[in-house]
Amino acid sequence: MLRQQLNDALKEAMKAKEDRAVSTLRLILAALKDRDIANRTEGADDEGIGDDQILQLLGSMIKQRRDSIEAYQNGGRQELAEGEAEEIEIIQHFLPEQMDDDAVATAVADVITEAGASSIKDMGTVMGLLREKYAGQMDFGVASALVKERLG
Asked: Is the four-CA dihedral 120, 124, 130, 133 of positive or negative sign?
C-alpha cells in the first residue's frame, strides 16, 4: 500500500512539475528497489519488502537528512540545509504520526515489561520489539537512550 502511495505521489509531482518532490520520490523509490533486490538475494519472496521495512527506510532517510542539515549549517551552506529540510517534509508525508516524548517513554516502559528485560544485555531484544511495533512512529535514537537509562 505504501509502495503504491509513493508511486502515485511521484506521478502527481511530475504532473505538477514539482522538481524537489520528483527528485526526492525518485530517491526513495531507488532505495526501495535496492532493498527489494537485496531482499531477493536473501531468498525472500519476489513481492519486495513490506510496509514496516519501507517505514524503517523512510526513517533512516530522514535521519540522514537531519545529519546533512547539521553539517551544512556548520559549514555555512544554508541553501543546501534548506533543500534537505524540504526533502524531510516530503518524506514525512508518508510516515504515520510521530509519537511525542511521553508516548515514546510509555512505549519503552511497556516493551521492557513485555520482554521481561532486566539488564543492558536485553537492549537488543527491546529495541527489536520497538522497531517491530513502532516502525516510522518514533525516533529510535531517543528510544535507545531511554532503554539504556532504564536498563543500565
From this structure: negative
